[in-house]
Amino acid sequence: MQVAKNYLYNAAYQLLNIIAPIITLPYLARVLGKNGVGVASWTNSLVTYFLLIASLGIVTYGSREIAYVHKNKALRQKKFWEIQTIHFIAGFVALILYVLFIYTGGAFNQRIHQNELFLWYQIWVIFSGMVDISWYFIGLEDFKKTVLRNMMIKLAMTVLIFILVKKPTDIGAYILLLALSQVFGNLSMWFYLIGKFRWPKLKELNLKSHWHPVFMMFLPTIATQIYLQLNKTMLPFITGVTASSGIYDNADKIIKVCLALVTSVGMVMLPRMSAHYAAGEHDQMKKAIHSSMDFVSAIAVPLAFGIAAVGPTAMLWFLGKSWGDVGSALVLLTPIIVFIGWSNVIGNQFLIPTKRLSEYTWSVTFGAVLNVFLNFFLIFIWGVKGAALATAISEFAVIAYQLFVTRKDMKVRAHFVGLWRYLLAGLAMYFAVRYFVANHGIGIKSTLIETIIGGFVYLLVLVILRAPILKRLLNWRSFR
């Protein structure tokens, strides 16, 4: 039951980081326009590379280490300060490198020079990474604190966007609100440690023992972010249009809402699987992974088919007719909902807990290199659609590699026993929704009806096919 609660809390936490931009997305698309949204997206994609340095691989590594020693309070506190000290050091290094980038980049690139002020505003994103201790609470399987505290911050930010962002020239205000909300949200988590943790003496800390595993976790983090952010970074350089980054970014945000529901399983299960591994309960791990893969497939498949069916027309009223290209990009991006969901399970629930970081690193590195290669060709030919297609192909490559390297540990076929049922139900849902779309107008009412029809058809087909997931959902303990 604890896993079920943590899944819901973590799903809410992931959605919370995205839901505020989604709520404001139609408003910003009209107020800031394609160029304004594009500038905000592009400058954020640049600072994200430096945020990687500030964050290292600590969110994943730290939560795993805390999960290993969660019953030993003294050792847990010691590990927290060791890992967080490394976090602070990395953050200061990232800040120095980012400042140098702004000063030198503007001299060599006109686009960077033109947006120098907005790049300075984005520096707060790095500060937010430095003070992020969500990994500690994830390791303790305590997701409630993170959700409730950040909810207030996100709500305040959403209200302020409607108050302060009124015209196309308010790009700076928008960027600052997004960045500062992350800073305050992460700082707020420190209040839970006041009075519970004592400040350590530096001589008590053993930083050396963490440098190598943190660095090994940093490598896949870099690779992952490359093919998550590189598309937005490269689009303006190759197409020559900053607005193209905004089009891709809006499609990406819609997809990430769906991914928040899907990938929450992996983050929730990471500390649980780490504990199983530490206790030598390998059969329990494999059983849980098969259950998680089935659960992820049951959620990801209808989300992918649903977005593909509804997205193209829904974006016309949601963002405005001038944003029609977002719908086309959405359709090409939908497969990654399934691919990332699967790779999240294999990576977060097996490769990372079992300390097979090299294989995990190679999988995401392979995807990143492939993404870079495909971007140069596909963006040049098809622009935003090419960037979306490159991402989908790269994500497929990642999960294919992970399944290949774990084939001797777990039967690949066992992961996908129920997949055919979800695909049939998803196809039935897709055609039912597309039939309705073809015979009705475009608007919020039509989209709501389409969503209801799609959900009903999907569940009906699952009941007819007697999908095991229905029984499993009634017994959350099967995910333990």
TrEMBL record:
Keyword terms of this UniProt record: Cell membrane, Membrane, Transmembrane, Transmembrane helix
Protein name from the UniProt record: Membrane protein involved in the export of O-antigen and teichoic acid (RfbX)
Segments crossing the lipid bilayer: 7-29, 41-62, 83-106, 118-138, 147-165, 171-193, 295-320, 326-348, 360-382, 388-406, 418-437, 449-470
Subcellular location: Cell membrane
Membrane topology: Multi-pass membrane protein
Protein source organism: Fructobacillus cardui
